[in-house]
Amino acid sequence: MPDHILENGDSPELEDLFDSIAHQVQAESAPVAGVASSDAPIIEESIRPVPPELIDPAVMYDQIGQLTRKLHDAMQSMGYDKSLETIAEAIPDAKDRLGYIATLTESAAKRVLDATDIAKPIQDHLESRAAELNQRWNLVFDNKLSVGDFKQLAEDTRNYLGGVPDQTQATSTQLLEIVMAQDFQDLTGQVIKKMMDMFKGIEHELVSFLIAYSPTMKKVELDTGLLNGPVVNPEGRSDVVTSQQQVDDLLESLGF
Amino acid sequence: MPDKNMRFLVVDDFSTMRRIVRNLLKELGFTNVDEAEDGQVALHKLKTQPYDFVVSDWNMPNMTGIELLKAIRADAQFKGLPFLMITAEAKRENIIEAAMAGASGYIVKPFTAATLEEKMNKIFQSLNK
Question: Nearest CA to CA, how far is A43 from chain B (Å)?
Fold first, then answer.
């Protein structure tokens, strides 16, 4: 298999680290009653409106500042500030995710084209040899071949058939390489997912802010369901979809 | 020598990735492969049918690979079930968390058929100890 342009970072040191911990864990293992999940359960946030007398411009300003910082950091971590063309080395830098996507798709395309470049001549050769032999066999069936030539044809044909498995296996190897080259989809898909989750999270926080600080007369128009807040969903679970409509309605009702 | 007919469960939310792992396993001679798109579906399948080996991605909706692993290790029904954790980043904290949760082994994406075979053989060897 040709050198994969991307190093995945695994190393003997990491393996040793894993092994030493795994052995410890096995040594002291007894099934633990119940599942200890380190992830916090989904909390449905209920956004309490800030009473007008407590609205402090300084606090509001601070919150907006923090949200802006979050948005900015998120965009930077997505590589938005780097030019997509400056990928000289294909090193998956955590800060250059968008560039990473470009690199992955490019190298995947290259792997596929390389594989087809290798496989095509093999196929062509297999085909032309078969055509040539077939022509000679046609002569046999037309009674136009001498005995000596017939013997030669039989030997040539036998050699050809003997060599076919090697050829087809070589082609299969290239086909597998093409399959493997599709792995970029998984990694780019994950990056895109992360981006979407980040944007959704930030949108949620901005919406919460708007609800909390909305002018009093607008509050009564808000759908009570919406005051409970959309569900915070960093793992991208499917029930966030309905809240997009709620966000639209909210923004409209607030005049945005 | 691992039984070539052993039943695998491949867990990943990207169907492309599930297909790739299935192809790799086939390349290694293992054709008895089932799939699940997240930890929850995987756990349900594990509870209702027999499997001999789990290969699971880390990040998935509804139930992550780590959560699935912990649920498996907490259940006596699955004692000794081999679990290979697929991780996208070779970071120390990921490796440590996988080991502590009871993974039988880990593999970093993207990986080759050769690497998969290596990691699986390592697990088979330790199973036979």
Answer: 14
For residue B25, the tally of other CB atoms under 10 A from its CB is: 22
Give the domains, in start order, of chain B with CATH numbers.
8-127 (3.40.50.2300)
Distance CA B11, CA A178 (A): 22
Report the b/e string of A152-174 with b at 16+ CB within 10 A: ebeeebeeeeeeeeebeeebeeb
- The residue among A227, A255, A226, A256 whose CA lies nearest residue A243 is A226
- Say what the pLDDT of residue A127 is: 96
Contact B74 A235 (CB under 8 A): no
Looking at chain A, the number of H-run helices and the number of E-run strands are 8, 0
Task: Compute the distance between CA of residue A35 and CA of residue B4 in angstroms, rounded to an integer.
Answer: 32
CA distance, residue A114 to nearest chain B CA (Å): 17
Q: Is the peptide bond before A49 cis (omega within 30 degrees of 0)?
A: no
Of A205, A248, A200, A193, nearest to A229 (Cα)?
A205
* pLDDT confidence band for A216 (50 / 70 / 90): low
What three-state secondary structure class fits A158?
helix
| Yes or no, beta carbons of A186 and B14 under 8 Å apart | yes
Give how far the C-alpha of residue B128 lies from the chain's centroid of Cα atoms, to the nearest Å: 18
Its ipTM equals: 0.83
**Model's pTM, two decimal places?**
0.55
* Largest separation between any pair of C-alpha atoms in chain B: 36
Q: What is the DSSP letter of A181?
A: G
Lookup: tokens for B114: 């050769």
